[in-house]
Design goal:
The protein is globular. A six-stranded mixed sheet has the order 2-1-6-5-4-3, with helices on one face. It is 32% helix and 36% strand. The protein has one domain: Nuclear Transport Factor 2, Chain: A. The model has no long low-confidence stretch (mean pLDDT 93). It is of the alpha+beta class. The protein contains four helices and six strands; from the N terminus they run ααββαββββα.
């Protein structure tokens, strides 16, 4: 088990995710997810399975998300077991120039029997910096150690 190779493969998967989004290719986007994947958007919509994720994203790429691009920065990759990676990223969608990476995504990525890594679960949360600041001001112990 080579964690460097695994991390490289997981990074390549997420790079492909960005590329398929930027190309507006719903089928290719959905193919990066497992057949039973769960996908939770920041507004709370739940999609199930790579096929549904792909087809619904194609509808979005053809309408609301037409011409958008995806920016993504990996914050952390952990391997709790040989065939599972937990990934945290900051990201955003944009047109023109990328804006602030105002969303946090959590991925559960799993190695398939053929050695490919696919996304089994994805959760997207839009950050609320004002709410965080208020919470941290009134309860400083709730602030993450990395921000203290």
């Amino acid at each position: 088990m080579n964690r460097t190779e695994d991390a490289t493969a997981v990074r390549a998967l997420l790079s492909s995710l960005v590329d398929t989004w930027n190309n507006g290719d719903g089928a290719a986007y959905g193919a990066l997810f497992t057949e039973d994947a769960t996908y939770v958007t920041y507004i709370g919509t739940l999609y199930r399975g790579g096929q549904e994720i792909g087809s619904t994203h194609q509808a979005l790429f053809d309408s609301f998300l037409k011409g958008t691009r995806l920016a993504d920065e990996i914050v952390d990759i952990r391997f709790p077991s040989a065939d599972v990676a937990l990934v945290v990223t900051h990201g955003c969608t944009y047109k023109g120039k990328p804006g602030k990476l105002d969303k946090i995504q959590t991925y559960t990525v799993v190695r398939q029997d053929d050695g490919r890594w696919l996304i089994a679960a994805w959760q997207n949360t839009k950050r609320k910096p004002v709410m965080e600041a208020v919470s941290f001001r009134f309860q400083p112990d709730s602030k993450p150690a990395a921000q203290r």
